[in-house]
Write a structure and sequence with these properties.
Length: 151
């Protein structure tokens, strides 16, 4: 039997042969669902009301923002709520998620952001997500603007 993949999308894979069509539902792996859900929620909160991000961090959480380190919910929120802009909008262009051996999820995000009236800038952000008491929190968070300084 000669079978070819005819179409692949996020929800299904369609295999076709001369005599039959087979539709297989392909759910995303759990870690991808967790990572993608977290990323969507995080940037919606960041863009609308950064104060709400506090629920995503714990006292053990760490943030590295443009090379500067912050540990604990209070220090992280102090940094995030005092960033020097009034308005921000993120646009995610790619995201990848992986499970870790200790049941965490690593999420890497690439995108663009627009701050106030400044030009659009690229950014990279990495999250390590951990399940504590049936709630996914951000254990580690690393952020960098995608700027190149060759000088």
């Amino acid at each position: 039997m000669n079978v070819a993949v005819n179409r692949v999308d996020e929800k299904c894979i369609v295999f076709r042969s001369r005599s039959e069509t087979l539709l297989i539902m392909a759910e995303k792996p759990m870690w991808e669902q967790i990572g993608a859900g977290f990323v969507q929620h995080y940037y919606q909160q960041f863009d609308s009301n950064r104060v709400l991000l506090a629920d995503l961090y714990t006292e053990a959480s760490c943030l590295t923002w443009e090379g500067l380190g912050f540990q604990g919910k209070n220090a992280i929120m102090e940094k995030l709520t005092n960033l020097p802009f009034q308005k921000i909008q993120h646009s995610i262009t790619a995201q990848d998620h992986q499970p870790t051996p200790d049941s965490c999820v690593i999420s890497m995000v690439v995108g663009q952001l627009k701050v106030d009236d400044d030009p659009v800038m690229g950014f990279h952000q990495l999250f390590l997500l951990k399940n504590i008491d049936n709630k996914w929190i951000c254990s580690n968070d690393m952020f960098r603007l995608a700027l190149h300084n060759f000088g």
